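Blinded run. Sample ID left blank on purpose so nobody reads anything into the name before looking at the predicted structure. Input follows.
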Amino acid sequence: MYLAEGPRAGIRHFRPDDAEEFTARARESKSLHHPWLFPPDQLPAYAAYAGQLIADPAREGFLVCERSGGGRIAGFININNIVGGSFQCGALGYGAFAHAAGRGLMGEGLDLVLGYAFGALGLHRLEANVQPGNEASIAFVRRAGFRREGFSPDFLFIDGAWRDHERWAITVEMRGAR
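Blinded prediction complete.
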C-alpha cells in the first residue's frame, strides 16, 4: 500500500477515492493553514488538484498517512516543477492536517519523501520556498536538513498578493551527510 514506510507514517500517491477524507481534513484545518496554504476543501477542487498530481509527469503527490488508526491522512507533500536533465530538481509543497500537527508524522513523512525523491525518482536537489513569517514551516524544513539559500521578494502569488519567500534546499549529498 505504501511507497515507503517509517515506524508511524507511510507515504503513498494521491487517489481519486481520497477525496472525501482529504477535503474533510482540509476543512478542519483552515485555521492551521491560513494565511499560508489553501488545499482543496471541496470535492470538485480535489478532483482537479489530485488529477494534476496524478497525470502531470512534472509532479509527484504524496499523502502522509498514519500507519496506525486505519491509515488516516496526516498531510501531504508534493514535488512540483520536476526538471530532469542536468538539473534533476523539484520544488516541495506541503501541509499537515490539524489532527496530526505537532505529532512528528509529517517530519517522518518528509524523510520518506526525501528518500523516495533521491532514490526512485533520481533527483539531486529539492527546494522549498517558505514565507518568512511561517515559523512552523521554516522549522519543518530546517529539521529535515534543508539549508537557507536566499530570499526572493514578491515570489509567489498567495491569498491575493505577491508574497516574499525564503528559499531552502537540500541535495542528495546533504542528506547522505546527516
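Unblinding after everyone has recorded impressions. The longest helix spans residues 105-118.
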